[in-house]
Amino acid sequence: MNAQFKKGVLELVVLESVRKKDMYGYELVEEVSKVIDVNEGTIYPLLKRLTNEHYFETYLRESTEGPPRKYYHLTAAGVLYRETQEQEWNEFQQRVCTFLKEQKDE
């Protein structure tokens, strides 16, 4: 998949994944990878930025498999931001699809 396409939609996929349930970093990498091929080096800086922008809050939860894990939770501001991102994505992809269809019809 085109790297620029991935970059443009990655934030929305991350926000939507955490909207469904709180997740820790590696779990989120696995979830997002079902849609977009990403690695930890891509996800963690995005999580840090979204947390700094107050779209996520974090908390620690004990793990049976090692040290406590940092979980990400979508804040109220994050829910609104995710909704805006989804609306913008839908409008964008609809415009592109319409454009491509019109070009084929000419």
From TrEMBL:
PANTHER family reported in the protein's UniProt record: PADR-FAMILY TRANSCRIPTIONAL REGULATOR, TRANSCRIPTIONAL REGULATOR, PADR FAMILY
Span of domain Transcription regulator PadR N-terminal: 14-79
InterPro entries: Metal_resp_DNA-bind_regulator, Tscrpt_reg_PadR_N, WH-like_DNA-bd_sf, WH_DNA-bd_sf
Protein name: PadR family transcriptional regulator
Pfam family, one: PadR
Organism: Hungatella effluvii
Lineage: Bacteria, Bacillati, Bacillota, Clostridia, Lachnospirales
